[in-house]
Design brief:
Helix content is about 30%, strand content about 20%. The chain is α/β, with parallel strands linked by helices. The protein has 3 domains: about 240 residues, Phosphoenolpyruvate-binding domains (TIM Barrel), CATH 3.20.20.60; about 80 residues, PK beta-barrel domain-like (M1 Pyruvate Kinase, Domain 3, Beta Barrel), CATH 2.40.33.10; about 120 residues, Pyruvate Kinase, Chain: A, domain 1, CATH 3.40.1380. An 8-stranded parallel β-barrel has the order 4-5-6-15-16-17-18-19, surrounded by 8 helices. A 7-stranded mixed beta sheet has the order 22-21-20-23-24-1-25. A 6-stranded mixed beta sheet has the order 9-8-12-11-10-14. α11 crosses α13. The longest helix has 18 residues. It is elongated, with a radius of gyration of 26 Å. The N and C termini lie close together (about 5 Å).
């Protein structure tokens, strides 16, 4: 059974918009309240009598189009009236006035520039949601310090959290050590050998014995993701002879790629397994697994984690040519994906990368997987205090395409301006989000009914919240309903209350979700009241606001297993009054058999 609580008698919004609540409450079915346009699939309120929907609280009317200054998480964004049609109001044309919180999350790589306690606190306050540990650099003792500092930060706050992502090194093919940089000139002959310790003006070692077998005459060898390139002319049993096409300075341990090919190395190396065990011991939240070529490696890792009783989600890094044909099976086996554009653009033609980024994001959305866009997002800010305009556009595109998160690598690991880089990413993402149509990334509503009840409840909860411009509150022990709600991209924040610290940390990666830790009592109403008081005390909502509360998910907390609730609540102070239907209004409610 699914019960939708749509109560009357409460002035939900000012002026004409009070009719919205009355109209919703008078409907016997959810389908009576909301319609779908045949052409576009847009949702709208089915009422010809409503002239406008305006927000219930407008502190200051500011037009985002003419807004000057930075957009932070406590500033209001614009309101505007709706373009309306005779049969309702398409949600995709709605611009909302709300306390704006950035929904796209930010992953920051921690390195020498940001590994101190002071810098981690500042990164968090600036907008970091996930701290990434790059296992290609540093040792376990260095990363242990970062983990301890993040856990110290998390212990101080109920409504703030940083997740920890351990990024494996993977099977990287690198050149050997050189005593000083070797200058490669266009047209020069240069060799790679599988003999160890070789470093001359025209020959350097590689760390991979099968490099000889993987390359063929005519192949392009890229150094540092394409900063230099060479063409293979011939090879012997231990030497690959090349001609330099694009020269530059070859330094120690540079990354090598062969265009269109992946190294025949296991995706998880012995070093990676040591690092994965380190992550299990420290209860990290996510693994980012490098150079995943097929689903087998994901299953292997998940089986290992299960044997360790470790609840850690697996994010696959799509960065090799071999991963593209196996994309569906890889994503199906994983918990999410990272579009690692550096190596992806080295192994495949660079003009394919934007198309692959869009494809991977769409595929993840359709499969309800989280997705991160990474590499070179603000590369110039490693050395400069302001980004290029192209980098700003790059962030905007990732946000518009619907990425759950965007990532900084060298910008925060060893850059000169890590805090400014995070601030740029925050403000650009927030500004872009404020301009997006409400349902621009919402999946096709007609496909919802092919899934289980949780999907239907998440979809209708999002529709209500978008129509009435309310934040969403969900109580969860597994995170499942919060993740579903995130997938439907509501226009307001999803406040996800949980009594599990691990779930709180995991949920912070998901688009639009603000996880909050709180102990649940056996009394549902008392728990609701404490949650609303916390939101009021922290300034996340204000007196008179309305919220949409949903009870559903994999594990019922207070409800009977077969009952799912969506409730509309209005906040009052100094006490909280939960809006419940009167006996007369209860007659208007409709119970739908599932």
């Amino acid at each position: 059974m699914a019960t939708f609580y749509l109560s009357t008698g409460v002035p939900l919004l000012k002026s004409d918009s009070t009719r919205v609540a009355d109209h919703l409450a008078s409907c016997r079915n959810v389908s009576d309240a909301f319609g779908i346009e045949a052409k576009t699939g847009r949702m709208y309120v089915q009422s010809k009598q409503i002239a406008l929907i305006r927000c219930s609280r407008i502190a200051e009317k500011q037009d985002v189009a003419s807004y000057k200054g930075s957009l932070d998480t406590d500033q209001d964004i614009s309101n505007s009236t709706l373009d309306h049609q005779s049969n309702g109001f398409p949600l995709s044309r709605m611009k909302l006035t709300t306390k704006s919180r950035r929904k796209t999350k930010i992953v920051c790589t921690i390195g020498p520039s940001t590994s101190s306690r002071e810098m981690i606190w500042k990164l968090a306050e600036m907008g970091m949601n996930v701290a990434r540990l790059n296992m290609s650099h540093g040792d376990h003792s260095t990363h242990q310090k970062t983990i301890d500092l993040v856990k110290e930060y998390n212990a101080q706050f109920k409504d703030k959290v940083i997740a920890i992502m351990l990024d494996t090194k993977g099977p990287e093919v690198r050149s050997g050590d050189v005593p000083k940089p070797i200058l490669l000139k266009d047209g020069q002959e240069f060799n790679f050998t599988i003999k160890r310790g070789v470093s001359t003006e025209d020959t350097v070692s590689v760390n991979y014995d099968d490099f000889i077998n993987d390359v063929e005459v005519g192949d392009s060898v890229l150094v540092d993701g394409g900063m230099m390139s060479l063409t293979v002319k011939s090879k012997t049993n231990d030497l690959v002879k090349c001609v330099v096409v694009d020269g530059g300075e070859l330094k120690s341990r540079r990354h090598l790629n062969v265009r269109g090919k992946s190294a025949t190395l296991p995706s998880i190396t012995d070093k990676d397994w040591d690092d994965i065990k380190f992550g299990v011991d420290n209860q990290v939240d996510f693994y980012a697994v490098s150079f995943v070529k097929d689903a087998r490696v994901v299953h292997e890792l998940k089986d290992y984690l299960k044997s360790c009783n470790a609840d850690i989600h697996v994010i696959v890094k799509i960065e090799s040519a071999d991963s593209i044909p196996n994309l569906h099976s890889i994503l199906s086996a994983s918990d999410g994906a990272m579009v690692a554009r550096g190596d992806l653009g080295a192994e495949l033609p660079i003009e394919e990368v934007p198309l692959l980024q869009e494809t991977i994001i769409k595929r993840c959305q359709s499969m309800q997987k989280t997705v991160i866009v990474a590499t070179n997002m603000l590369e110039s800010m490693i050395d400069h205090p302001t980004p290029t305009r192209a980098e700003v556009s790059d962030i905007s595109i990732a946000v518009r395409e619907g990425a759950d998160a965007i990532m900084l690598s060298g910008e925060t690991a060893h850059g000169k301006y890590p805090l400014k880089a995070v601030n740029v990413m925050h403000t650009v993402a927030l500004r872009m989000e404020s301009s997006l149509p409400v349902n621009s990334t919402t999946p096709n509503p007609l496909s919802v009914h092919k899934r289980h009840m949780g999907d239907m409840l998440a979809f209708h909860t999002t529709t209500m919240a978008n129509t009435l411009k309310t934040p969403i509150i969900v109580f969860t022990r597994t995170g499942s309903m919060a993740i579903l709600l995130s997938h439907y991209r509501p226009c307001s924040t999803i406040f996800a209350f949980t009594d599990d610290d691990r779930i709180k940390q995991r949920l912070v990666l998901y688009h639009g979700v603000m996880p909050i830790y709180m102990q649940f009592s056996s009394d549902a109403e008392e728990t609701f009241s404490r949650a609303l008081e916390l939101l009021l005390d922290k300034g996340h909502v204000v007196d008179g606001d309305h919220v949409t509360l949903v009870q559903s998910g994999a594990q019922p907390i207070w409800r009977k297993e077969s009952i799912h609730h969506i409730q509309l609540l209005r906040l009052f102070s100094p006490y909280l009054l939960i809006c419940r239907p009167s006996p007369m209004e209860s007659m208007r409610q409709e119970k739908h058999s599932s």
